[in-house]
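Input/output pair, single chain:
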Amino acid sequence: MGFSEIEARGLVLLGCGKMGSAMLKGWLEQGLSPASVHVIDPEPSDWVQGTGVNINDQLPEAPAILLVAVKPQMMEAALPSAADFGGGRTIILSVAAGTPIARFETVFGAGTPVIRAMPNTPAAVGRGITALIGNANAGDDAMDLAETLMQAVGKVVRLDGEDQMDAVTAVSGSGPAYVFHLIETLAAAGEAEGLSPELALQLARATVAGAGALAEGSDENPGQLRVNVTSPNGTTQAALEVLMDDENGFPPLLHRAVKAAADRSRELAQ
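Output:
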């Protein structure tokens, strides 16, 4: 994987909070030169300051990519400062949830290639997944360059339309938090059954990580993997009868949770 064009022209990172830092960590570990990265952030973390990237310094005239990683609530204040990068030479790549492509086209003008991306925080360990969708000005070269950048921190999928982005945000963008909460609650349940907090957390963390790796690496679908673990009238079946309940189990609960996240993403776009 090569970063040659990015290193030749520069990468400007507008905002470098948790998501920006997660991606930056992955890029640097994949060999991206810190000297080619320019971070604009009023309060860069100690970690960012120790990476060797350029921080709040002179920016390249026409960087290959302007990556917008500010929170949606800060978008109105942050975007105008970068409006000079519009016009076509720089790809505007946004990882901000709920901010539509049309908003960037308004700021950066006609002819600007704009790509929305929804990565997730496992990008920090090279295990993220990012969904991409571009506007009419984001041709194959622009999409390929954005994909190259995002592949450095995990898998990449391309969407058929921007209307899919709210669902992607709710499933994979916010999804790691659901899994972390599963680890928390599984460990707490283990404590309630008599395990020490340390042992319960160790078991819960390793179980979720291992099951995820198995699901990703197996040719069998998750439903079949679940069946493989479930002995008739055994302990797993007893638990699944609770978790798979049509009224109070995982299916209706996760449906409501994902819908709430997707609805919020739609609200942010208004």
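The beta strands are 11-14, 37-40, 54-55, 65-68, 91-94, 114-118, 128-134, 154-158. The radius of gyration is 21 Å.
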